[in-house]
Design brief:
single chain, six-stranded parallel β-sheet, seven-stranded parallel β-sheet, disordered N terminus, 17 helices
């Protein structure tokens, strides 16, 4: 393979055929544990010249996560294996936690002006810098792609003046400047179609995790459940229902506890991986219901969390409005777990075949949530079959699919 680097018109020569080298710039708020492995994989593709631009470095320095309620330092490499650049944040209240005005990176304009024509992928319009970059990138002749997570089911629940202004800006200012729209799943695709985006402008870039890493650990641990449970301080003689997420209102952890209490079986344990501001209320509820075998783990970092999935039997997520996907579901399915989700959990339309690899429950229906969890605990054969189907489904939501579909944008 021969590679020729030409300013503004890079190309690679392979097998006597000429193909343009795709220049892609991903603009992201800050390094995120779920995206770093994707960028590493993209960088391995010899057809892609990748740059990742970050508006903040707070996740690298470690930061106080207001929802977790603890200082977070991720223990997997977030900047390894791909090219990146940080931009100065000029906000008077700089943080990804401070809403729209928390990121104001004025130097993006100069960088976009000087960058050879590229595909610029922006992750929504949550921050000033995102909107700023979309307008500037379009002005300087780049092809702008918008990656968004909002499912239509969530959009329909947004009402009021603020939502009306948001939709006006979206349709009149942002959407006309977008070359392609990256959708993460069915609900998100429906969102774009609902707002009049033509189907031929939509590119499927499924919300994915590092399946290879999780699957490798699954295969390594699948015959070591008792050993791993003992090391984690979990019972070896009970089935384990696992949830994973921050202890915050959006995740509805209290619903999960109440559903578990209604099952009322001594041979089942509930493990809630996470931490957050609702812990005191959760502990009070557990005590008030006199529940045994409920484990609140506290914050678990990325390198350790697979061990909890390894010893589980069933996964549950009871999220509501604001849960645009729910990547913990992807993680759990890589361990062959059946999944039970509330219907407003964004991935429920994609990752759950209702009655086959799990169940989708109407939000807030704790009795049905409990019934379906009980069904899975009592039907070993169905639980095994459902788990195997989960493994098959999640294979389709992979970095490989993202890369393949990104290549199609240029062909």
């Amino acid at each position: 393979e021969i590679s020729l680097g030409l300013v503004g018109s890079e190309m690679c020569i392979r097998d006597s055929s000429i193909r343009f080298l795709m220049k892609i710039v991903f603009l992201h708020s800050h390094p995120i544990q779920y995206f770093a492995p994707l960028y590493q994989e993209l960088s391995k593709d010899t057809n892609i010249d990748l740059q990742v631009w970050y508006c903040s470095d707070e996740s690298i320095k470690g930061h106080d996560d207001l929802q977790f309620g603890v200082k977070v330092n991720w223990d997997i490499p977030l900047l390894k294996g791909y090219s990146y650049q940080f931009f100065k944040n000029n906000s008077w209240k700089p943080s990804v936690s401070n809403g729209f005005w928390g990121l104001m990176n004025f130097s993006l304009v100069k960088a976009l002006k000087e960058e050879p024509n590229s595909l610029v992928v922006v992750h929504g319009w949550k921050f000033f810098s995102y909107v700023y970059a979309i307008i500037a990138a379009h002005y300087f002749g780049h092809k702008v792609c918008l990656r968004l997570e909002t499912p239509l089911s969530h959009e329909k629940l947004r009402i009021g003046l603020k939502s009306g202004i948001r939709r006006f800006i979206m349709k009149r200012i942002l959407f006309p400047r977008i070359h392609k729209f990256f959708y993460i799943g069915k609900g998100n695709m429906d969102f774009f179609l609902h707002h009049g985006i033509n189907q031929n402008k939509l590119i499927f870039t499924p919300y994915s995790i590092d399946n290879k890493r999780f699957r490798k650990i699954y295969l390594k641990n699948k015959n070591r459940k008792d050993e791993i449970r003992t090391s984690l301080g979990l019972p070896i003689d009970k089935q384990i229902i696992i949830s994973s997420g921050k202890y915050i209102d959006k995740k509805n952890p209290m619903d999960i506890i109440r559903a578990f209490a209604m099952i009322n079986q001594a041979d089942i344990a509930l493990v809630m991986v996470g931490e957050g501001i609702l812990r005191p209320q959760m502990e009070s509820l557990i005590k008030g219901l006199n529940l045994k075998n409920v484990y609140l783990t506290g914050f678990i970092n990325q390198s350790k969390i697979p061990h909890y999935y390894s010893v589980a039997d069933i996964f549950v997520m009871a999220s509501g409005l604001g849960e645009t996907w729910g990547l913990s579901t992807n993680e759990a399915m890589n361990f062959g777990l059946p999944v039970v989700l509330y219907e407003l959990t964004g991935c429920s339309q994609d990752l759950v075949k209702d009655g086959k690899n799990g169940f989708v429950i109407p939000n807030g229906n704790i009795e049905e949530l409990s019934d379906k969890l009980a069904l899975l605990t009592n039907d070993h054969s169905f639980r095994q079959t459902a788990g195997q189907l989960s493994l098959s489904i999640i294979d389709q939501y992979s970095y490989a699919t993202v890369i393949e579909n990104l290549n199609e944008v240029f062909n």
